Amino acid sequence: MLALVITAHSAMAKLLIYYAHPGQAFSRANAAMAAAARDVAGITFVDLYADYPRHDIDVAREQQRLIEHDVIIFQFPLYWYSTPSLLKEWQDLVLQHGFAYGHEGDKLAGKTLQLALTAGGSRDAYTTDGYQQYPLRTFLTPLEQTARLCKMQFATPYVLYESLAADSENDIADHVSGYCELIAAIIDDRHDFAIAGHQGVVTHHDLTTKA
Amino acid sequence: MTEFLLLAFIFLVSGVIAVPIASRFGLGSVLGYLIAGIVISPLLHALNVDVISIQHFAEFGVVMMLFLVGLELEPAMLWAMRAKLLGLGGLQVGITTALVMLVAMAFGQPWTIALAIGLVLALSSTAIVLQTLNEKGLMKSDGGQSSFSVLLFQDIAVIPMLAFIPLLALPELMDVATESGAHGAAEDNHHGLNLNIVAGLQGWQAALVTAAAIAAVILGGTYLTRPIFRFIAMAGLRELFVATALLFVIGIALLMMVVGLSPALGTFLAGVVLANSEYRHELESDIDPFRGLLLGLFFITVGAGINFALLFGNFGIIIGMTLGLIAVKFAVLWALGRLFKLQGSNQWLFSLSLAQAGEFGFVLLSFTVANHVIPKPIADQLLLVVALSMLLTPALFIIYEKLIVPKFSAASDKPPDEVDEDGDIIIAGHGRFGGVVNRMLRATGYSTTVLDFSASHLEVLRSFGFKIFYGDATRADLLHAAGIEQAKLIVIAIDNREQINALVKHVRKHHPALPIIARAVDRRHVHELYAAGCHHIIRETFDSSVRTGRTAFELLGIHPFQAELLARKFTEDDRHILRAMAEVYDPDVPNHENPAYIEKSKGLMEKHEAQIFGKGKVYSASSDSGWMPPGKQDVETIEADHQGSLLR
Q: Residue A20: closest CA among chain B residues belongs to which residue?
């Protein structure tokens, strides 16, 4: 019994969620996701805009947080094909050379970066024929390469398209439960980070059918 | 009484008229005083005024000046000067004495008289040279520092000279003197009272007493002055502090005279000891007016003391001797300047500035006559030479300024020699407000000079190594002493509203280019300061109040970032209103009689009423607009545009 507990414990991944959203009062999808994730036992949930309302990021504290966890989730709405500014500031400051990359910069090696983002455009918009002209993954290449340079695994991003048009009853609720499923699977170390999705991203459909 | 007032009136009038005129023509104040003295000399003669005894009194200005020079000179700086002081000073006195002695012997004087003349004429005028160097801002240059070293050495050298000169006494003069012996003795003790206690002691005893007196000055200056000055400062009476400062200088001068040392040297030492004190600037500004007046009086007496009858009787000889003396002294200084590696204009400054004889020459001459070393007729002529050479000194400085400086200023690529020893930033007031500002600036490596009127916490702060000085920051002379002319910025952090206004107005008027940051007590005070010409106004409690409001938002459950945005919006609106109102505020018209003010305030009230009275979710629309997501219409427009572009 004791041996079992130890095994089970060691198999659990330590999960750190960074939630970055400056306009939470207007958020539906991200607010619902955050509300669900916030209280999951055994994970660390950080509301970046609550921790650093004046963008005064405590670099040492953030680096310690990274060291103490195995899987890092960035949860954010896509703003101009990038993260909200505070999360960009966080990357600029926390992912220092000598810590995250470069000479002796191997503190994040072997960890995993999982994106959980919402996009206003539809799946069709993010195609060569759509008004965004490129698949969503193309806009995420800076983050993917950031993870690579930090010797981190870049997991297939978890995405909600048309987040502004999504209705709360069905689409958002499904996306939130898919998010919860993702979190639970990561904790239990049974999530396939390399899972192939449509055009390189996964939605709640992929997770609920395959999980 | 009437006589005293009349005399004071004559001296003051002559100075007040002559000095500004001389300054206007770029001749310097010293020449102005000298000319004033020459002009009033017939009048003084007619009134039977004892110019010489007034001069002895006015010499105390030199003592005060050396005290002030000492205040500017920290002990470490003095120690760094030791080579110049002994080498340059010693060689100047030695070589000049020898050369003048040779010349005098060549003119047939016996060696004893010749040596005495050499000693008398080797000295230069501390009063004129330091006054002029300070006035022209040359004190910190290499040339100025070298000149100062030599002058300091000379002041010290006077003491052994006074001991040595009686040994040169001539037997034949002694015989003459027996008849008029009483007169000589009276000349000797012109101060009337002989306080010297060392004279009767044996050599080692005298040395012991002298050492003890110097130790008393140094130790007293280091350990006693601070509690005494603090005690006086606690009384809060300005004139009491002035009195204490005067008492301090006079006391030391007296102590030095008692042990047979130069009072100038003693007060100089005391000044050096106090150079690190927080009361330095206050002492400086208290003593400075007395120094200025006494030195002015001294220069007037030099001018008035010129015996024109004697001068015109032997015009050629005396002018020749004067110019010869200046030439000899200049040559010696020029060679020494070369030896001590003074460059370019600094060598000229050094050589020209010290080429005259000095006020100690007067003292030594009367002393030599009294001790039967130099016959009276020769001494009278020498007296004229000394006075004339002093009279010509401003001309030498003019040569330096008009002929030498232009020659070198083009060639010199060295930065100016002016050392910025005061802080770049003046902080007036070091309480809860200014203290934080000071800590921030110093932590970033800026050099600050802090002025504060509260003596009680100054010492604690000084022990942290802050450059903090005691004094009322609203006084112009203290600001001057703190180096406001060189300052890059002044932060006014005192807490009295009227004093803040007065200081802002003063600085705006006299230093229009100096940026001011001023502390404001409330909104109305902001308007007053804005009208006074200060545009960097910080309300003392506004930022902390806004932060308190923001924390309240957070505790009421508003998201911290949202609370931050609300606080920013509030601050922006409030500042906008404040600035708009400040522009129409008129300090000379009450607000309720100022139509522009009333109109503006009505308009702003309507526009910002909600903000001012905090009704409901007034900030939401503006503060959140940046994070409001696009609507359905926006997405449709984007898609339509895209379809259109595909069709084209």
A: B561
